[in-house]
Amino acid sequence: MYTFAMRLIAFDGRYLINRRNGLGVDSASFLSFFQTLGCEIVIFGFNDQIDELRNLYPNYEIRNLGFKLLAIASSIFKPNLTLRDCDVVFLSQVHPVRFYRNNEILFIIRIHDLFPFTHPKFFTLKSRVAFALGMSHLTVRDLVVSNSWYTYHELLRIKWEKFHDNRALVVYCKVETTESIQCQNCTVCCNGLPEQDYFLSIGTNEPRKNLESLLSVWSKKDIPQQLVIVSNHGWKEIRFERYSDSKIRVMDDLCENAIDRLYSSSVGYISVSLDEGFDIPAVQATLYSLPVIVSDIPVHREMLSDYEYTYWLDDSQSNILPILKEIQAISLPTQYPPNRPIEAWTRHVSELFAYFLKMK
């Protein structure tokens, strides 16, 4: 294992609170990686996140950036000094607060996607402004870590003036079968889960996930299987109650154990997103040997083209019935493929970071 000259690492806690979406899972993976380095770690967040971060990480120092709007506004005129004593600052996504920087502090910025720029209609004005502020704070010294080659090439395509490919890495999200850990409310989470003959789809309730299109197709087509959607609250949400149907079931706030059970019992997985930076749930489904039915978008081509049981939807999803019938006829493996070990992902990230630090 490589070791770096990192004594004190400041870690972005914004997404550690919610481990049930892609940003949360990815953030937790990187926190685990930095823990392997044996460095001191402090976690920072806004005022309304501090209590929950302290409950989740009682053994860490938690630093308060202050009230969100005030911290963002004041940093426009004067950089925030909360992290000025740190050697490394890891941002789980571009951050709207402008932090103090000098030549001794390395900023590592995880870029999941550029959708507030490339698909602005899918986002609120508030989130677009916050993202634009975060991008404006990037400097040529920062190390940019994108989650896919698609996201990396999108950075090149938009010709972001502070992005240089010699200051960038591509590190895929760590994807594993969900751990069957009993949460405090596990009995409640797992009560009444469907047990068979359903297709699964997981995604935040927001326009880019294109769930309304899937619901519309499923409710109109003569499909015998149930569609189970696991969806956390997002923005510009669709009203699921408009599609009240015995063939459609919507669930939320499920623990890892419940998600594991849903994958394990599902007939297949469906993702109809209009765009993705990685799509952890779809890739996760391959670890359960599930057929995956996905929209034909660049990152699905990158992640799923070499998977034997990938089926491509056309733009209108008109070919979904033939795909479902084909899936019914295939013989799937009775055992899951070997799970991707944590050590392999950690070693990969470590080698990439070490290479960069030697070259900088």
Please state the CA-atom Rg, rounded to the nearest Å. 21 Å
Q: Globular, elongated, flat, extended or rod-shaped: what is the shape?
A: globular
How much helicity do the residues have? 25-40%
Find the count of extended strands (DSSP E, 2+ residues).
13
Summing up helix and strand content along with how strands pair, one would put the structural category as alpha/beta
First-to-last CA distance: 20 Å
Poorly predicted residue ranges: 338-342
Give an account of the 3D structure.
The structure is a single chain. The protein has a seven-stranded parallel β-sheet with strand order 3-2-1-4-5-6-7. The protein has a six-stranded parallel β-sheet with strand order 10-9-8-11-12-13, sandwiched between helices. It is built from 13 helices and 13 strands. By secondary structure, the chain is an alpha/beta fold. Residues 338-342 have low confidence and may be disordered. Helix 1 links the parallel strand 1 and strand 2.
Keywords for this entry:
34% helix, alpha/beta, six-stranded parallel β-sheet, 13 strands, 360 residues
Give a quick summary of the entry.
The chain has 360 residues and is α/β, with parallel strands linked by helices.
Write the layout of secondary structure elements.
Blueprint: E1 8-12, H1 22-35, E2 40-45, H2 50-56, E3 61-64, H3 68-77, E4 88-91, E5 106-111, H4 115-118, H5 125-136, E6 143-146, H6 149-157, E7 168-170, H7 186-190, E8 198-202, H8 211-220, E9 226-230, E10 248-251, H9 256-265, E11 268-271, H10 280-286, E12 292-295, H11 298-304, E13 310-313, H12 320-329, H13 342-359
